[in-house]
Amino acid sequence: MPAASHPAQIPAQLPRVVVLATGGTIAGSAGSAASSAHYQAATVPVGALLQAVPPLQGVARVEAEQVAQIDSKDMSFALWSALAARIAYWTAQPDVAGIVITHGTDTLEETAMFLHLTQPCPIPVVLTAAMRPSTSLSADGPLNLLDAVRVAAHADARGKGVLVVINQQIHAGRDATKAHTSAVNAFVSPSGGPLGFVQDDYVRFQRAPLPAIAPLPVPSAWPMVEIVGSYAEPSRVVVDALAAAGVRGIVVAAAGNGSVHEVLGGALADAARQGVAVVRASRTGAGHVALPASARAAVGGFLSALDLNPYKARVLLLLLLAADPSLGADPVRLQARLAAF
C-alpha cells in the first residue's frame, strides 16, 4: 500500500527547517522579466529568496545558510564535501526537522547521487531548483522552494533518504535526472517515476524509494574517474590519453544496452589490463545495462552500471574507488558493489 499523508495541520510550534543555498538558476536574475533563457545564475542571496515566499512562515521556522553561490555547471568535489559537512552539522541538532538544499539544475542529479550515497539522512534532505530565474515573469523557484520546505518538514518524508522536489513532484535522489533543456517539468525518474507529489499543503508519497544503504565515506582524496562516449567511428585517442594520465576509472556512455564500438572497446580493454575500472552505462536515458553473464565476461566485457546514467554511475564509481582502491583490480567484486547501490 502506498504511504499516504493528509493535508497538514499547522502545529502550534512549527518544525525547524534549514535551507542550505548553493546558487543556481533559482538564485538567478535577468535584465528583462521576459527573459527565461538569458540570465546570470547565482546572484540572489538566500535571504532574498526566502523573503519572496511569504507562505513559508506558515509551514516551518526556516533558517538559511549560504554555503556557496555558483552556477551549478561549475560544481566541485570541494563543494560536495562542504555540503556533506553542513548536513552533518545540522542533522546533529535535535530540533531540526529537515534540510533543503537550493541548487542549479545542470548538475543537481550528480549532487543528489553524491548525497544519496554518503548521507545517512536521519531527517529529510531535499534538493530543489528552478528552470527559470527569480526575475522571470513565470519564475518556478518560489513554488519549488515552498514545496521543498513542505516536504522537508513533513513526517512522511522521514526515512525516504535524499529527495528532489521540483515541479510539484517528489523524486528519489538516486533516480532524478534532468531530461529537458528548459521546460519546468525537466526532471524525471526514468526507472520508476516520482515517489509522490505536492499540491498546496497536501504531500503524498505513492511509492517508497529503494531500501536504505550503508553510506559511503566522503573522500579525502578523489580518484580520477572520467566519462567517454561510444558512437559511430570513435578513435582511441581519448581513452589512451586518460590511461596515460593515470585515470582510475572510466564510465562509457554506451549505445543501447551497453554496446561499445570495437575500436573504443579495444582501447578500453587495454586500459582495463592496466588496472583501470571500466563501467558501461547507457546513453539512452532509461533502462538497465545487462550484467555480464559470468565472472569471466565481467573481466573481458567490462562492467554494468545497471540503470544509472553515465553521470550518476561516475559518482558511484568515484566513491567506491576512493573507499577501496583495490576494487579497480577486482572487477568481479566491483560489479557486486555497483549492483548493491
TrEMBL record:
<feature type="active site">
    <location>
        <position position="105"/>
    </location>
</feature>
<feature type="active site">
    <location>
        <position position="25"/>
    </location>
</feature>
<dbReference type="InterPro" id="IPR027475">
    <property type="entry name" value="Asparaginase/glutaminase_AS2"/>
</dbReference>
<dbReference type="InterPro" id="IPR020827">
    <property type="entry name" value="Asparaginase/glutaminase_AS1"/>
</dbReference>
<feature type="binding site">
    <location>
        <begin position="105"/>
        <end position="106"/>
    </location>
    <ligand>
        <name>substrate</name>
    </ligand>
</feature>
<feature type="domain" description="Asparaginase/glutaminase C-terminal">
    <location>
        <begin position="225"/>
        <end position="324"/>
    </location>
</feature>
<dbReference type="Pfam" id="PF00710">
    <property type="entry name" value="Asparaginase"/>
</dbReference>
<feature type="active site" description="O-isoaspartyl threonine intermediate">
    <location>
        <position position="25"/>
    </location>
</feature>
<dbReference type="InterPro" id="IPR037152">
    <property type="entry name" value="L-asparaginase_N_sf"/>
</dbReference>
<dbReference type="InterPro" id="IPR006034">
    <property type="entry name" value="Asparaginase/glutaminase-like"/>
</dbReference>
<dbReference type="InterPro" id="IPR027473">
    <property type="entry name" value="L-asparaginase_C"/>
</dbReference>
<dbReference type="InterPro" id="IPR040919">
    <property type="entry name" value="Asparaginase_C"/>
</dbReference>
<dbReference type="GO" id="GO:0004067">
    <property type="term" value="F:asparaginase activity"/>
</dbReference>
<dbReference type="Pfam" id="PF17763">
    <property type="entry name" value="Asparaginase_C"/>
</dbReference>
<dbReference type="InterPro" id="IPR027474">
    <property type="entry name" value="L-asparaginase_N"/>
</dbReference>
<feature type="domain" description="L-asparaginase N-terminal">
    <location>
        <begin position="16"/>
        <end position="209"/>
    </location>
</feature>
<comment type="similarity">
    <text>Belongs to the asparaginase 1 family.</text>
</comment>
<dbReference type="GO" id="GO:0006528">
    <property type="term" value="P:asparagine metabolic process"/>
</dbReference>
<keyword id="KW-0378">Hydrolase</keyword>
<feature type="binding site">
    <location>
        <position position="72"/>
    </location>
    <ligand>
        <name>substrate</name>
    </ligand>
</feature>
<protein>
    <submittedName>
        <fullName>L-asparaginase</fullName>
    </submittedName>
</protein>
<dbReference type="InterPro" id="IPR036152">
    <property type="entry name" value="Asp/glu_Ase-like_sf"/>
</dbReference>
<dbReference type="InterPro" id="IPR004550">
    <property type="entry name" value="AsnASE_II"/>
</dbReference>
